[in-house]
Design brief:
homotetramer, 400 residues, alpha/beta, TIM Barrel, 8-stranded parallel β-sheet, two-stranded antiparallel ribbon, 10 strands, 10% strand
Chain lengths: 400, 400, 400, 400
């Protein structure tokens, strides 16, 4: 390490007090479906206390926000969260201290879409899929949501089954029709995914494809990056940096994975990767009041309790954001320019290895929040009450 | 290429006539569940004509055998194929020209097994799982089945959730108890799988773990190799060669994959890999009347028709077996010893690129089978008849 | 399979005679470095007869073309192929029946570039790297080459070592400076690579990054797709289809791989993948006299003989192109639109499993070429002559 | 979280003071080759101050031990570290406060081994390779080394090039011959590697193969686990747990990777994985005075300085060992048995997120070591002195 660099680091180390204000504005959207049952193709295990209605899901999301102050909005999934009166649903959310957020479309559970939706060869099927998005846009007007998120399950299982090129052309046309329907201030965010449920090809498999489409659509079309939707070994923080540079990173779907799209708790599988991602977010202007980047969770709690699973998740994002903000970026830039590999790496690791939990606990208490939201929830008996109260009815779920 | 080698090749090339007899003995077991509906966690699409009962599944399997002569047995999955009278079921199969084969246990769909079955910390759960296997062994006595196949879904989703080591110890004990219950001539085959449905660790994730357990159990415990259950890039034919060398390759679950355990039609994703696998099978003594290796399919036909999907699958195995038998192994050995890389590779590729389909069509006709079983099935109107007849009742399926 | 579809297939099957003319125009560029020694970081094994000069490399390339008629051009790598007089080198090539093709730059073997070249933080280093490309453009003027190919080894080994975002900005600026220097009719093709020699991040790791850069540069900037430069499981034919759709597929670097960038003989690791790639090339207008797509090899013959390794490679591309051209695209489109999964897949596989080798052998003889170029080469004694003649001097190589 | 569990955790949390003594015994062997130049097939960059002799490498290793107290032994690689008098070399090491450790054989850099060494079809080649190992054993007698480590580069690049089965049989025979030559107290540790330098198949590709061989050899044959030698996604800590259970984990080669065998600084790519590995080491009895498991580094410092690269590495292992020792295993077991997924995971993560660095700094000072070895080294001017002194001669390196 260069002697000058050493001095620079000693003088400029970032302290928790320096970043406390920045943390205050953090908001992480919860997905309504995280509170319902989920599982694999082999089995969906039910859990006592699982919500039966969208209102109960919202109430569960509100509990997460109440204990953490981190989750002021909840995303809807249509038709899973379909109701007659979305304005009333918005008021219900408001009464629980929440707002309704992103509207997620679904074109993967109707028999009609077995061979595709926005990419289907049959114009009637495409039209039906487009109209479903029109319906979502209409809901957004009623809920005041900003983002229409499209994750497309379209793809094929066997070489030759579909015409890769023709599907792209039809996709572009369908997306344009949807985009043109957006109101002022509304955005279309297009998610990509490496594979599943299709096993040979996926119509939006990578960030390049999503980027090419949203670039063609216009300014209010953006890419959604789901942290679990990449090929093994992919450097996700590079994609974050690139999309921020290109002005096209619209939102995150946070979760974590060891193998495929495991949808585990964000930060659970590779906390250092989450740190690197958030470092690039901060570096690239993706964090803070002026950033267009929306933070969301997209997870499945197959074997763990769902409300504390969501609490753990937003805390993980918060803790790692704190570590990313603690990076001494001036010292880092100096080490990078000096070609000091170990010095630069050491500056980054220093922030990662800093235990921010005591400072965050104090910070929470100073804002009227419980110091340890996980423990507060466990001690509150809330889970046991839900299990006792929510008897009868059909538990919410997703998937087949 | 060495001049002597060239002569050798020219003189000794293997012809289809040389291998026709070997093909006659080939048998590929069909899984009863391939005829039911299947899908992903996102959606299971239904198909007209899907069986409602195990008898209808057996009838469908019989159709595959009728047209191909390749599939004389059908595997059962308990409890999916549970009946009151297995002897009667065996007679039903016999009336359709089939025998009942491998019995597959299932310890992944009862709420009890949410945190494990044969590996569970709770002795009562383990005992229940062991007793399920006793039931399977009892069924095997009634059906005359040779193999009890155990695919274990046990695993965990989060680091720390389970004690990796303790789970292995309990697994060993549970397996021993099951093994000790086997009758004469019965075998236990232990399947391994890289991941899914567990996403952090799987209790039998690789061939090494399966091998260590079956070696400890005894002579009648063998490894089952499912071609879709490996890490990306794994050289599967090496494992085939190794297990044959160690005398522990009990059976195959054939299917194919691009990404994870996609369960696509065998040979569909990487036909050359299937060829290499079968080349090692032949090389290592895993093919033929004296071999202990059982060939089975384990596939899901999520978007394609199921009966022709199975026909296509057994034909793929047959065609590729023919190519593997066509390898001029004497010439290959000479080229290998000479360090003639391109020559040796060329000998292998020559067999792979040989179009065996016309010879196989003639061979089939000479044995009273349709030359083109896929076409025969399509033209027979069988699928349409099933769709018309099988109305009402609950279609068979698997998974959640 | 639908009855109408069946009829369509029977009527319209494509025959070899229908595609013979299309094959006539095929040209695959050879890399000069394929004839030099190569290896891994562990060892570069030398081979008798390896060229000592660029002229000997060109002579070897000419031998490949003489026997196959497939390889009329040879790519240069600067500085490995540096000479005083490129016009003279071009005449030398012409005398051997070849033209000089793509010029490949090299910014990865000078100590200056240890921490980057076009992306380096130090302006002086960037300028040196840019000027190296100016030199390459100057050479292109002298050789009449069309393409300047940039494969960038830039990247970092440790998180924090470099500023991902700043490196992209500097890369964009450097590329623009190079692009502005291109003469009329010259193109810049930007290759991407997943990893190696950098192990944490690579500055152009995926097609999306390459596409974003070349789109910003202008019409004569294109993407180069090296078939070995992707994450495990990547659907490469999808990228081919997408880049053709976007008008940005400039060239291929063909090779094959089982694991990383193995640089094996094209088609050796996964012949079916090569077939699928070429099917999309044909489908998307990437093959034929009007296509802007250049076909090149980029391989290393670490353990096999180099000239026959290149012969095998161009034959593999030719054979697979023939199979791709044999796909009955009209029938395929009909099956795809009908949702006939097995039918559509079957049409594709039918072409793949067709043994085109006898037809190609006859086709070659009709054009004055040896029916079996591999055998012709082996029998010619050429390799032995080279080994005897090329004694003394330093064998060409690449890498460290 | 269960209330009783909460109490248990509060009562029993492990403190640094509880583990300090256990840390005292930790020893991590350094590889002599880490101090020489290394690189990729593209380029080996030289560094001022690189050792020219094995003595200079040992002096560099001694510096690492002087500053950390963690690295009392250094591994040799034959023939890279060949000397006339190993007893004298041992005394030289002793004078520098070190002992000579594992002897690593090398059968991948002689032209003879182009197509294999212990697996070669030619008995003369196999004999030469076996005799090289006899030489290594002889050296071990002179140096007092315990372990002969065999990493075998044997493998093939093309399907058909070699006979997978025959190679295994020859390997088994060669290993037996070597094993039989071992003296009392000497061990053979057999390393496995997924791929590289061979790109189609590797003769010892996975732990199962290594385990099968060492089990056949006898008690003093063990498996060496190199953390960079696995397929993408492999759960390495599971293998650790399994090998400890089977009594066959002989040693670790520590390093880290993002893609292939990147040989980066241990803990640099995925610190959480290193933590999980060390947790299983501790859990399974692999740490402490009675454990047969040897800890080694096997890394390449391609772009960073080598001595501080090794200091950083041993510190990373030490810090992560401390975190692993801090896991409250009693509480963890209780949470695991209760099926408390989030609770159990939380107990593990609590240890991982604990910042052990201040305690370790104090612990070092109490033992006469610098609190911050990285800073001490940087401030010492040692690197600059080496660069000034080590002028002339050929820098040590490895690879081609």
């Amino acid at each position: 390490m260069l002697p000058d660099l050493k001095r620079l680091i000693e003088e400029s180390t970032v302290a928790f007090a320096d970043i406390a204000d920045q943390l205050a504005g953090q908001a992480i959207e919860l997905p309504s479906w995280a509170f319902g049952n989920s599982g694999t193709r082999f089995r969906v295990f039910g859990t006592p206390g699982t919500p039966r209605t969208v209102q109960e899901k919202i109430a569960d999301a509100a509990k997460v926000h109440e204990l953490t102050g981190l989750a002021p909005t909840v995303a809807l999934h249509i038709p899973w969260d379909q109701v007659d009166d979305y304005a009333a649903l918005g008021r219900f959310a408001g009464d629980h201290g929440l707002r309704l957020g992103t509207v997620n479309s679904n074109t993967f559970q109707d028999d009609l879409y077995k061979f595709g939706s926005l990419t289907h060869t049959d114009e009637a099927v495409r039209r039906k899929a487009v109209e479903h998005h029109f319906e979502c846009i209409e809901i957004m007007h009623q809920t005041g949501s900003q983002d229409l998120k499209i994750w497309l399950a379209d793809g094929t299982n066997y070489p030759g089954q579909g015409d890769l090129r023709g599907r792209q052309d039809r996709l572009a046309e369908s997306l344009q029709t949807i985009y043109d329907r957006l109101g002022d201030g509304q955005r279309l965010v297009l998610e990509y995914k490496f594979f599943e449920p299709a096993f040979y090809h996926t119509d939006v498999p990578d960030w390049g494809t999503s980027y090419a489409h949203v670039s063609a659509l216009g300014e209010r079309a953006m890419v959604c990056l789901d942290t679990g939707h990449h090929a093994p070994g992919t450097n996700i923080e590079f994609i974050v940096a690139q999309l921020l540079r290109l002005g096209k990173l619209g939102s995150f779907d946070f979760n974590s994975r060891f193998y495929a799209d495991d949808d585990l708790i964000v930060g659970a599988a590779d906390p250092f990767q989450l740190f690197r991602i958030l470092h690039e977010v901060v570096r690239g202007g993706g964090f803070g009041p002026d950033s267009p980047v929306a933070f969301m969770l997209d997870q499945c709690h197959n074997v763990e309790d769902k409300i504390p699973g969501q609490i753990r998740s937003v805390l993980n994002v918060q803790e790692m954001t704190a570590r990313a903000l603690l990076v001494d970026r001036a010292a880092l830039a100096t080490a990078q320019e000096a070609g000091d590999v170990l010095g630069a790496n050491g500056i980054l690791m220093d922030a990662f290895y800093t235990d921010v939990r005591p400072d965050l606990a104090a910070w929470r208490e100073s804002r009227g929040l419980p110091a340890d939201p996980m423990r507060s929830y466990a001690e509150s008996g809330h889970q046991q009450r839900l299990a006792a109260e929510r008897v009868g009815g059909a538990q919410s779920g997703w998937g087949a």
